[in-house]
Amino acid sequence: xxxxxxxxxxxxxxxxxxxxxxxxxxxxxxxxxxxxxxxxxxxxxxxxxxxxxxxxxxxxxxxxxxxxxxxxxxxxxxxxxxxxxxxxxxxxxxxxxxxxxxxxxxxxxxxxxxxxxxxxxxxxxxxxxxxxxxxxxxxxxxxxxxxxxxxxxxxxxxxxxxxxxxxxxxxxxxxxxxxxxxxxxxxxxxxxxxxxxxxxxxxxxxxxxxxxxxxxxxxxxxxxxxxxxxxxxxxxxxxxxxxxxxxxxxxxxxxxxxxxxxxxxxxxxxxxxxxxxxxxxxxxxxxxxxxxxxxxxxxxxxxx
Length: 304
Description:
By secondary structure, the protein is mainly alpha-helical. The chain has two domains: 2-157, no CATH class; 162-298. 82% of the residues lie in helices and 0% in strands. It has 13 helices and no strands. The protein has helices at 2-9, 11-22, 31-41, 46-83, 87-100, 105-112, 119-128, 133-157, 162-194, 199-220, 222-226, 231-258, 265-298. Helix 3 (31-41) runs antiparallel to helix 9, helix 10 (199-220) runs parallel beside helix 13 (265-298) and helix 12 packs antiparallel against helix 13 (265-298).
């Protein structure tokens, strides 16, 4: 895990993550979270904190400077890759803040370099807009100090709660991972459902996709559920609806292939009635699995 690497190598690995992160390279962990962890686990005194802020700020400025220099030659291509469809909004935000701040480019760079979603794009956008290097660095340097110093200082101040910070990070990272997987899964299910030629086919594909995902997650939480409400009770409470969702998904996947073969109106009407009942039961199973998983994650369902 990244947090164990941060605990072992401390400032060097944090510096590497900052530098490559400023170049738009994914690091697997937001830099402010890495700095928060480093501050709580590695920084043990106020002089260490000052030294860490100075060193990591220099690294952050170095990465920013390299990206900014590159942007003055191949800026449009770099901005497109980093912002992934947000390049127009990034440049518009840059221009808007320049106007709001009375043309004070340094202040605009400082403000926008503190915004996570646009800070890298602003580095490139400043090169595209031909902002003077002096103005860029007058804004970028103090922004780097704040960007590095704030989470590092918070981690140091709350270092006695290092375990709580690690636990919070683990919960957040797990939630982000599950959330990202859910978004991707919903997009795939939505695309797959739209390819069906009938309403029944679309309904079955939605049920199959979501039911399969929720069922698999439920099965994955069975070890946790076994320690809650007694082994048999916990397994039954989560395992039964999870297995029901997997069985329903399998049936829907098979039935989806036969949807086009339903020809007569009475049969179609009967099928619609059956599907309504199945969908209601499916929704209850999804809600039960989701509620138990959330309870296990948040500690509401504590081990017995």
